[in-house]
From TrEMBL:
<dbReference type="GO" id="GO:0005886">
    <property type="term" value="C:plasma membrane"/>
</dbReference>
<protein>
    <submittedName>
        <fullName>LapA family protein</fullName>
    </submittedName>
</protein>
<keyword id="KW-0812">Transmembrane</keyword>
<feature type="transmembrane region" description="Helical">
    <location>
        <begin position="42"/>
        <end position="61"/>
    </location>
</feature>
<feature type="region of interest" description="Disordered">
    <location>
        <begin position="88"/>
        <end position="121"/>
    </location>
</feature>
<keyword id="KW-1003">Cell membrane</keyword>
<feature type="domain" description="Lipopolysaccharide assembly protein A">
    <location>
        <begin position="27"/>
        <end position="83"/>
    </location>
</feature>
<dbReference type="InterPro" id="IPR010445">
    <property type="entry name" value="LapA_dom"/>
</dbReference>
<dbReference type="Pfam" id="PF06305">
    <property type="entry name" value="LapA_dom"/>
</dbReference>
<keyword id="KW-0472">Membrane</keyword>
<keyword id="KW-1133">Transmembrane helix</keyword>
Amino acid sequence: MRFLKILFWLLLGGLVAAFVIYNGDERIALHLWGGLIADFSLPFLLILVFLLGFLPMLVAYHAMRWRMRARLAGLERALADLRAVNAAPHPPSEISDEPALPAPSGELPLPADESNQTEER
């Protein structure tokens, strides 16, 4: 895969070099505001316009990639924390083999403080 990437960039560089060699003496006159005229070589102007369109998208791509990597790293840290919590052994006092028994009257038992208040009323 790396070979193909290098081959692609070499071919692109060769095409740009061939374009510059064959069109290097072409001049373009750009009429600007206020009667100004800018004289550019055609290859320089086309490379400049290409870079003006390519570089903002390249920066946006790298920013998105950086943001996704940071997000993925945060999720991996959270997953590692969850795995560490689940892997920790529970103390035997918290684990009970006996199921909880319901109250005999069918009502839920009140805590000690609330049962004292109802008896006083």
